[in-house]
Amino acid sequence: MPLFSFVLRRILQMIPTVVFILVVTFVLVRLLPGDPASAMLGDRAIDADVERINASLGLDKPIPVQFLYFVKNVFTGDLGTSIALKLPVTTIIMQRLPVTLMLTLMAALLALILAVPLAFLAALKREQTADAVIRGTFQVGLSMPVFYVGILMLTVFGATLKWFPVGGYGDTFADRLYHLFLPALTLAFSFSAVLMRNLRSSIIGVINAEYVDFARAKGLRPRIIMTRHVLRNALISTVTLFGLQIGTLFGGAVITETVFAVPGAGRLMIDSIYGRDYPVLQGLTIALAVLVSLTFLATDIFQAWLDPRVAR
Amino acid sequence: VERGGVMTYGRYADSLFLDPVLNDANVDIWILSNLYDTLLLPTDDGKGVQAGLATEWKVSDDGMSVNLTLRDGIQFSDGSPITPADVAWSLKRAANKDNGIWNFLVSSIDDVTTEGDKTVVLKLKHPDPAILAALTVFNTAILPQKVFEAAAGATDADKAKVFAEHPVSSGPFVLQSWDRGSTMKLVRNEHYWGKGEDGKPLPYLDGVTFEVLPDDATRILKLNSGEIDGAEFIPYSRVEELKSAGNLNMELFPSTRVQYVTMNARPQIKGKDNPLSNPKVRQAMNYAVNKDAIIAIVTHGVGKPLTSYMSSATPMHTGDKPLYAYDIEKAKSLMKEAGFEKGFDTSILVLAGNQDEIGIATALQQMWAELGIKLELQQVDNATRTQQYRDGVFTMREAAWTDDIADPNEITSYFVYSPTIDALHTGWKNEEADKLFDASQKEIDATKRAAQYARIQEIYNAEGPIVPLYETPYPVALSKKVHGFLQIPLGNNFFGRAWLDK
Amino acid sequence: MSAGIGTGLGLTVRGLTTLFDTPRGMALAVADVDLDVGPGEMVGLVGESGSGKSVTLRSIMGLIQTPGHVTGKVEWGGRDLVAMPAEELRRIRGSEIAMIFQEPMTALNPVLPVGLQLEENLVAHTRLNARERRARALELMNIVGIPAAERRLNEYPHQFSGGMRQRAMIAIALACSPKLLLADEPTTALDVTIQDQILKLLLDLRDRLAMSVVLVTHDLGVIAGTCDRMAVMYAGRIVEMGTVIDVFRQPRHPYTRGLLGSVPRAGAVRTMLSSIEGTPPGLTDLPAGCAFHPRCSFATDICRQERPPLQSLGADRKVACFHHDRVAAAEAIL
Amino acid sequence: MSAVPIISVDGVSKQFGVSYSLMRRLAGEPPLAVHALNNVSFEVHRGETLGIVGESGCGKSTLARCLVRLLDPDGGAIRFEGRDISTLRSAERRAFNKRVQMIFQDPYGSLNPRMTVSQVLNEALSVHRMRPKRDIPARIIELLDLVRLPHDAASRHPHEFSGGQRQRIGIARALAVEPDVIVADELVSALDVSVQAQVINLLLRLQEELHLTLIFVAHDLRLVRHISHRVAVMYLGQIMEIGPSEGVFASPRHPYSKALLDAAPELDPTHRSRVVAARGELPSPLNVPPGCPFASRCPHVFDRCRVERPALTKRAPAHSAACHLVDFGAMPSALADAV
Amino acid sequence: MSVAVEKIGLYPRFRRLALPRTLISGAIIIGVSLLIAFFPALFAPYDPIAFDYKALLKGPTLAHPFGTDSFGRDVLSRVIHAYTIDMQIAVFATVGPFIFGTIVGAYVGYAGGLAEAIFGRVVDAVITFPFLVLVIAIVSVLGPGLGNMYVAVGIVGWVFYARLVAAEVKVQKRLDYADAGRVMGYTPMRIVFRHLLPNAITPAIVYWMTDMALAILLGSSLGYLGLGAQPPAAEWGVQIADGKNFMSTAWWISVFPGIAIVITGLGFSLLGDGLAQLMRVRR
Ligand SMILES: Nc1ncnc2c1ncn2[C@@H]1O[C@H](COP(=O)(O)OP(=O)(O)OP(=O)(O)O)[C@@H](O)[C@H]1O
Ligand SMILES: Nc1ncnc2c1ncn2[C@@H]1O[C@H](COP(=O)(O)OP(=O)(O)OP(=O)(O)O)[C@@H](O)[C@H]1O
Ligand SMILES: [Mg+2]
Ligand SMILES: [Mg+2]
Ligand code: NI
């Protein structure tokens, strides 16, 4: 029951966030210089064409009126039609968003797989060589631009070793996982560095806790002590960080998708900014906002599960 | 020749909209000819015309009409016959002033009529020397009227959206599937009329798959690893390297692509006096630019200096020596004459993240510094740049151009002829050039027309509002097993005669 | 209470020394401690904060980790716990020897239900199946006096009150019926009435289970009320040892004497207390000679130069002071 | 003891709202509240020491905080020299705090770790303009002498001091503004036994020298008994018994006071008992039972205790208790047990 | 009470001079970086923007230890001159958010209640919005260039500082010394800024150090998209982006600036760790 009401409260809190983002996006999008027609038609269009097309998109109406239309449509579940792709925005988002979702999910998983054991190793060998090596490596990961890491990965694992395809996106689910592995790894590279740092220090904090000593005094097996007592408590703060970083991860996806030619929402976002594709841009930010909020919610619930003190 | 197989081709961006009339961009234009056939086809050098859906064509002596005879037994990809009615309807749609942005290419068409089941007659408003060339251009492609009109939607635009999702077409290939932003799959059109060297129907390939690979490096890596058979837009910096790669053919297809800098020639910009309005200043700046150096830096020797504002692959191009050979002394004295001995501050719009444009601008910055001109680079995205361009408030910008039609009229109408877009939105205007252009548009005597164009080029190259830089071929890298692939100077990719080694 | 109620094992500690390698230098937290705990005996360990009481217990348990280092002998049933391989020691911990920690808030894992924390002890040391473990858990909760045990087992530590947490911790420690219980200030965090309950509970359990207990505290009253013998620690060393009655009647170390004098007594309202001036020394820079000399009113030159050995004064009585006779003879503080 | 009390507490109550779940809120259930203080009344006279004892969570700190207006009571009034302190506005309030100071329990938390001792004292002295600027250093030395800290302490940070020394810094800070009343909340509970005595001695001496009025809050009965003139015993936000300390400790008139005394460990190893003084634990302050709050643990409980809350009534001159057994403790305690 | 003796003893003052090793190495790296940033001309052998058409894409040689780029510019000189811009990015992109975030965080943490609830929603909204996209959008609106990049980063960045400070102030204000300040009759302003903030700001300062490294990285990501530093100025991210097409033919164009980023990032994070250690409150 307390968990339920906790979840309910978080969902209610999401509403103002999404509304806020809706308004900001709408305004921001319209502040961008240029208009969809000129973005789309390029240099060659003559003024008459531009005006004719903008008018056909309803962009000649006053902005408040446009906003009302937009709000009305959003509430009826209609996000409009893409200006550039001439497809319903919902269709496009349903095509592109799952790709990004899968990419970030894989990246998050890989990051955890990388970060957790190494954080343990570093924490246990604190201030020793292993610790220094691990931290140094992750520092490099943290300081390398995503696109650079990406191209490096492609060159090494794709073109040279041929372990993985060089970018692109497969047809079947398994094939897609295979294609997404390198981009996910690229994204995970810096993400896991952040996680590792945090987890390492929280493990160091937890490992000296009295309850860990008590667990040892109970004569528990080291494995149980490490997982049940140390890791679980150490993860609490890492999960918070994880949630906070999800947004950043989506941001990283923008560049990763370009480098790896993954047809995801990140690239769509950039394209629609450059193409002034207002409906897509608006629809996508809303979808992303909801998605990120849901991720927050998920991490919150996970955290409430990890730490029963949270859901009072 | 070997038949069969699917060729995978890496493109830098996905297509947007596969309607021949209503599309807007090169990403569509350059592949449309694989889907939709036109009455006439461009020759391989891109300068002439050859038979397409029509086998015979005849312009009347007064130049006011064109008679075309359709090929026997031609069919759409659904097997239905291509009738003169389809042709008439398609051409009228292309010429409709309210449709898309390409109708100016066929603006001379007044009406299209049919005669019998073979003949189509174009009635023109005035003699049009470029009409045959226009009939090779993508927007005059022939679509099945019935299927199109049966598509859901109230307006032509709505119907086009539905139709373009699963087009019934007349070209060598048909669209099989399209995963937006990722892959587009074309398969052979069983009803295509073309015949191959072996006498069997074209195309040789079972299909073509386009993969969207926006990052240059990724595209090349993928080609290297054999996952794709060809890649477009190889960065010039890699051309030399790929030429020497054993498993690849580094193709440099002749093109009509010209790279230049546009200078706003208005006396004032946003209320401030504009030194660029002085032709002497523009000439000085032209002389101060070392084109060879820029070609070396930016295109790594792939390009060559422009000899006119239009490319040497454009019909009726004149000029045999590079424009404004580097001459810094002359540049300085011109600046002095113009009263800008100390130079001035100015700026240039550069497309954000575009390495070539940044490279050019950086080089210009250095070169013009010799004249005391301080050039500020402003990286902006395309929409912003277009907006400033269209509003005429930019100072300078970089730009590139490729022709869509095998005729000098398109480029001239934009670059020179002020009524179209104010000569590249620069506000430049020359009465004589405008008059010559007007005349040339109706001049069916080829020699006379060539003379008109020679004069236009003379005027524009001497005092026009641009810094002509270089022309470059289309760099396409192909796997050694690819044969018969063609990109014509207008940019169109032809897969109809391409084949793969087994 | 006399020793030897049970037939169980005894604990013999000899020369237990624990060093910590700190950035400030080596800290001698426990120095050369000898301690015997007979079967069924309850031994008290008092001393100021930082005098090494907890470290002594942790060293016995083998809980000292880097940067700490333990030497000496801890004999338990003929085996030396210090030299024992980790796995063997693990089997003894929690089953034969159990420990209760000072702060029940921090010693219970906040994110696990109390029942799980209890049962994992049984999983580690017994072959009971899930149902039997549950039954044993309920039994233990009853022993330590937690009502509604069935529900309580599924609750988390933060849902318990302080006293209940302490009792839950005792229940966990008792899960495998240990022969020796090391209790590190089990009541310091509690109210007097609860402290009273817990101490009496410990006494009961000692009797019922024939357990030996080492009880660490800094409250002399607790010692007086529960223990058979006591040891006083100062700066890592045992400075006085004896039966509780002897030590309280006649302290022979000035520190013990000061400690007893610091506590207000009935009848002496609003008078000055006989406090020990000064503060305990830092472990990395202990004074030469007797560590207590800077705060000692009996100190002479010899105290500043030499460290007094822990000398035996008859059965069960030991003291480390050159002037223990003068201390014993000084005006009574009671 | 003078006739006019310097502080009078009159029926003070204080509740803390507890965050309660959305579901309950939607279900229209009333908000929960901790009743930390329940109708507490007493007086403090100039120059005396009033001890307040009770178990953890019984509201001692809440009371102490109300006295210095760190908290505002929900009901009742606290008067300082006859003025209701809740009516004081900002400047007056600061003037009030200058005269009624508080010393805190936690020697580690009550000093700003980034300020040196002289910065701490200097701030107190200059904000209240206790001395002209140039006299401040001299006054700091004076204060250090007063609390028996070495002069070189002035330039050090709190972490360089022991717990006992830190408490003295806290005392010096309170004394800097020359208050009349000091409220000491668990002043020595965090300290070692040997150090406790030092601080208690200092407090006793300062009170004599400076004629301070002291409200000494603690859970250690021995200490409270040692330094207080009068003692109030609290339980679940209420005063159970209040009176002169000898009276309360020698013959408690409330079963709770007696249980508290019995539970406190004796320093005499020859007097041992295996009888538990009080069973059970403090009930949750969220739902205080309607009758006597001690009813659930009282060995002498009878029906009336569970329904009617006993009022604080006089048992002897200046000695009151809140128990239905008005005779409790009046007879020898052996007999009282038999009731 | 587990009061460690080491905390109680009186320590001679000189102990404070024992600086953490991480701090020293971090400070040396950043110190040298700043030195280079202020006086690049002292270190750079060539003019960083001068072309040399005769030496395009030359590998590392004695004359050009880091080689030359596609314009024949000396990569070493460009890496050195980039210090000026990149250190500027590190500082300017983060100072504003740090100060503003700290003030807001201090207020929110102290006031609690409604302020905190509103702040919570703002934080949600800002971190829900894809950061890079927001930055790109803002840079597109305001135009490219470093100044506008700072604005864009600042609009988002302050939130993280505010969160950190608010959380810490919330902890600190419950400690007795905050109450002591109130009892001493100090004003809330004084309590927040003189007492609580100095104790609450450490995590924000540590994060600041990381953030500076992140700002340089973000600068390079924006450079990749053409929205960061404008040519011909040398900036590591832009250099790396420039070198991207030459990774197989002229690796030195991108590798050396990459190493510079890594070293500087390492310097900042060492400095952060060291500062954290140094500023850890000893109680
Ligand atoms: N700010 C607060 N919010 C909610 N509840 C509070 C608050 N302060 C105190 N309480 C509750 O009020 C009751 C009385 O608390 P108080 O701190 O006054 O007790 P105490 O007698 O000082 O206890 P201790 O001896 O542990 O210090 C407790 O139940 C406590 O949980
Ligand atoms: N892991 C450690 N590293 C360094 N020093 C330590 C460590 N653990 C304990 N010490 C030191 O050992 C000494 C003895 O500590 P111990 O915890 O045994 O004291 P104690 O007598 O139990 O005190 P308290 O009454 O406060 O619990 C202290 O000075 C402490 O600082
Ligand atoms: Mg201890
Ligand atoms: Mg309290
Ligand atoms: Ni203690």
Automatic annotation (TrEMBL), chain A:
Cross-referenced Pfam families: BPD_transp_1, BPD_transp_1_N
Localization per Swiss-Prot or TrEMBL: Cell membrane
Q: Which GO terms describe its biological process?
A: transmembrane transport
Q: How does it sit in the membrane?
A: Multi-pass membrane protein
Keywords tagged on the record: Cell membrane, Membrane, Transmembrane, Transmembrane helix, Transport
Q: Record's GO cellular component, any one?
A: plasma membrane
- Xref: PROSITE patterns: ABC_TM1
The ABC transmembrane type-1 domain sits at 97-303
Stored SUPFAM superfamilies: MetI-like
| Positions of transmembrane segments | 12-32, 101-124, 145-165, 177-196, 234-260, 280-302
InterPro entries, alphabetized? BPD_transp_1_N (IPR045621), MetI-like (IPR000515), MetI-like_sf (IPR035906)
Query: This protein's superkingdom?
Result: Bacteria
Family note: Belongs to the binding-protein-dependent transport system permease family.
Which PANTHER family does this chain map to?
A: DIPEPTIDE TRANSPORT SYSTEM PERMEASE PROTEIN DPPB-RELATED
| Protein name listed in UniProt | Peptide/nickel transport system permease protein
Name the source organism. Phyllobacterium trifolii
From TrEMBL, chain C:
Q: Does the keyword Ribonucleoprotein apply?
A: no
Q: Name one GO molecular function term.
A: ATP binding
Q: Name one GO biological process term.
A: transmembrane transport
For this UniProt record, give its keywords in alphabetical order, as a comma-separated list.
ATP-binding, Cell inner membrane, Cell membrane, Membrane, Nucleotide-binding, Translocase, Transport
Keyword Membrane recorded: yes
**ABC transporter domain location:** 11-260
Q: Which SMART domains match?
A: AAA
Name this protein carries in UniProt: Peptide/nickel transport system ATP-binding protein/oligopeptide transport system ATP-binding protein
UniProtKB/TrEMBL annotation, chain D:
- Which InterPro entries does this one have? AAA+_ATPase, ABC_transp_ATP-bind, ABC_transporter-like_ATP-bd, ABC_transporter-like_CS, Oligopep_ABC_C, P-loop_NTPase
> What NCBIfam families is this protein classified in?
oligo_HPY
| One of the GO BP terms on file | transmembrane transport
Cellular component (GO) terms are: plasma membrane
Protein source organism: Phyllobacterium trifolii
Tell me the GO molecular function terms: ATP binding; ATP hydrolysis activity
Similarity-based family = Belongs to the ABC transporter superfamily.
Q: Where in the cell is it found?
A: Cell inner membrane
Supply the SMART domains for this chain.
Answer: AAA (SM00382)
Q: Which Pfam families match?
A: ABC_tran, oligo_HPY
Membrane topology, from the record? Peripheral membrane protein
Q: What is this protein called?
A: Oligopeptide/dipeptide ABC transporter ATP-binding protein
Print the organism lineage.
Answer: Bacteria, Pseudomonadati, Pseudomonadota, Alphaproteobacteria, Hyphomicrobiales
Query: Start and end of every ABC transporter domain?
Result: 7-261
Q: Which UniProt keywords apply?
A: ATP-binding, Nucleotide-binding, Transport
User: Does the UniProt entry include the keyword Transferase?
Assistant: no
From TrEMBL, chain E:
Could you tell me which PROSITE patterns the record lists for this protein? Answer: ABC_TM1
Q: Where can this protein be found?
A: Cell membrane
Q: Which InterPro entries does this UniProt record tie to the protein? A: BP-dependent_transpt_permease, MetI-like, MetI-like_sf
The lineage's top-level taxon is Bacteria
Question: Which Pfam families does the protein's record reference?
Answer: BPD_transp_1
**Does Membrane appear among the keywords?**
yes
Keyword set for this entry?
Cell membrane, Membrane, Peptide transport, Protein transport, Transmembrane, Transmembrane helix, Transport
Where would I find the ABC transmembrane type-1 domain in this sequence? 83-272
Q: How does it sit in the membrane?
A: Multi-pass membrane protein
> Where is this chain primarily localised?
membrane
Enumerate the transmembrane spans: 23-43, 89-110, 122-143, 149-166, 204-229, 249-272
Tell me one GO biological process term.
Answer: protein transport
> How is this protein annotated for GO cellular component?
plasma membrane
Q: PANTHER family under this entry?
A: D,D-DIPEPTIDE TRANSPORT SYSTEM PERMEASE PROTEIN DDPC-RELATED (PTHR43386:SF1), OLIGOPEPTIDE TRANSPORT SYSTEM PERMEASE PROTEIN APPC (PTHR43386)
Q: Which family does it belong to?
A: Belongs to the binding-protein-dependent transport system permease family.
- Protein name listed in UniProt: Peptide/nickel transport system permease protein
What species does this protein belong to?
Answer: Phyllobacterium trifolii
